[in-house]
């Protein structure tokens, strides 16, 4: 029995040594040759020093990064699927195929009419930076009865043709009731925000959808909203805008609005849609202008804070 065990030990030991020697030969004969052909491949058992690498950043990328920092100066409402364009930033809701929020920074220069910018050249187009599973298409809106409503308004980005064109990506679009809302009252609110640049040197505007609950016949609250198209694009029940104006002496004034996605009479005062910013934050799950404590806001909805 002992003799049999000894033979097995000799056999396995010899086999192991043979494999080891064969492995060394194979590494030297084939792997090392391949490494010489492809020097980026690592050699097992050795550590190579990293070569210092200095990234080359173009002036265009630096300028865009600076612009994004400027737009988001007072904080991100959330960090979910953030997309940065040249003149606005958004967070995309993959499930609903509509942005969570869109952030803009407006100045008298950015909203000033530019004869070189032609909106008629712009076309609504899918945002190919979004995975196809979560992307909305123009076909989703066709025959739906809803407008393709801008969140970052095209009229807010008149400095360059590319800026206004980028507002037509469908990631910046949401289904809006046409007559009485998108083409009328909502449009008036967008104009009002642009007029704020005549009072404030900087205007920061965050816009997005809401899906608010409604009490059913049984007395319980339900969140019900329509979806359109093959991609089931959500139709928001409401839209919000939270705006901060910065005065020449650095004071910050906040205004916050929540509007139903429905026809609104033109003689309805805008102030009737003013709501505490906290109510929008609770409903949306977002925190607006988080880099600024509420105590540092000089005014909220026209009232001294």
Describe this structure in words.
This protein is α+β, with helices and mostly antiparallel strands and 305 residues long. It folds into two domains: 1-50, no CATH class; 59-304, Extracellular Endonuclease, subunit A (Extracellular Endonuclease, Chain A). Helices cover 29% and strands 22% of the residues. It contains eight helices and 14 strands. The protein has helices at residues 2-37, 59-71, 108-111, 138-141, 161-166, 178-182, 185-195, 277-284; strands at 82-84, 88-93, 98-106, 146-150, 173-177, 202-210, 214-215, 221-222, 227-228, 233-234, 238-246, 252-260, 299-300, 303-304. It has an eight-stranded mixed β-sheet, with helices on both faces. The chain has a two-stranded antiparallel ribbon with strand order 4-5. Strands 7-8 form a two-stranded antiparallel ribbon. A hairpin with a 4-residue loop joins strand 2 (88-93) and strand 3 (98-106). It is globular and about 50 Å long.
Secondary-structure blueprint of this entry?
Layout: H1 2-37, H2 59-71, E1 82-84, E2 88-93, E3 98-106, H3 108-111, H4 138-141, E4 146-150, H5 161-166, E5 173-177, H6 178-182, H7 185-195, E6 202-210, E7 214-215, E8 221-222, E9 227-228, E10 233-234, E11 238-246, E12 252-260, H8 277-284, E13 299-300, E14 303-304
What are the defining features of this structure?
eight-stranded mixed sheet, two-stranded antiparallel ribbon, Extracellular Endonuclease, Chain A, 2 domains, alpha+beta, 305 residues, globular
What's the CATH first level of the largest domain? Alpha Beta
Can you count the helices?
8
Give the distance, in angstroms, between the N- and C-terminal Cα atoms: 94 Å
Lateral arrangement of strands in the main beta sheet: 1-2-3-6-11-12-13-14
Order of helices and strands: HHEEEHHEHEHHEEEEEEEHEE
Helix content: 25-40%
Strand-pairing-aware structural class: alpha+beta
Total of domains: 2
